[in-house]
Specification:
12 strands, alpha/beta
Length: 314
Amino acid sequence: MDLRPCKPSPAQVERAVDLACRGLLCYQPFIFSDRLQTGAGFEFVHAKEFAGLVYCPDLPTRFRDRKDVERFLVNPASFDAFADCNQRLRVLYETFIDEIELRVGPIDRHTFADIGCCSGYFPLSFARRGSPLAVGFDRVDYSATFELLNGILGTHARFVHQPYRAEKLIPRDRLRWLRALHHELASWFAPRGMAPAREQFDVVVSIAVLVHLSDPLQHLAYLGGLARKAILVWTLTSDREDELTIEYLSSNRYYPEDKFPYCFDVMRISPGLLRKSLEQMGFTEIHEIRNRPDGMPDNWFNKHRGYLALRPQP
């Protein structure tokens, strides 16, 4: 998302630098100024972790010579490639949003939830296109990031610091979570003289989250339970097109508190199992996301699969 037409103030750009250098605004593709851009596209395309997520040649003194900050910074000499890769990633993200608008209907008539929202690219995009309610949920606290980006864009996307924890999805805890969600929805609807119909959203999106979970089928069921009309899932997949398989490639390096059996990180589900799961949940119309010529390189794109699945509507 190119924010330069919104003319962020110097204070907002300074705040963005602070959040980016603390890992709270670096993964998704945003442009704040000619001297501040973020996004993981460069690392995705080159399959090289630590290649860089933040272009910020004017690094504040307080962040210089810090190993934890160096992890995020791209070499300025690689800026052109960095910018190109993140533009391609933006095209992919906008493809998801356009596909939803094409298949489900106008954004301004639907509510949205992004489970594992990171810095909020999708809730902010839905809010920017007029959604009456766009909410992001994440285990990391991105509330300050949402506040900044809402301020720049003039939007009202909401953030809920709520982790998805498979081991807690038993009936009693699920009911407690749904009550908390209902309270969150009611707090938005009540001042407008409206009431949420159920603890659901019209559309639920899950972008590059399934790959990091040990319980992909349970998580898909969880997403399906939140979605009234449609879900969009994008994840790393295996090359076993029509088989019903799950492959675990590595254990979790980032969240040591996630104990067995929820400790596996990179997971590949077969496209056949992903489609079958969507069908079993009652989604009768399933559209595969296609790459665009100006999108991500085919050799990267084809290692993933994205589906927009729609329920039959009365």
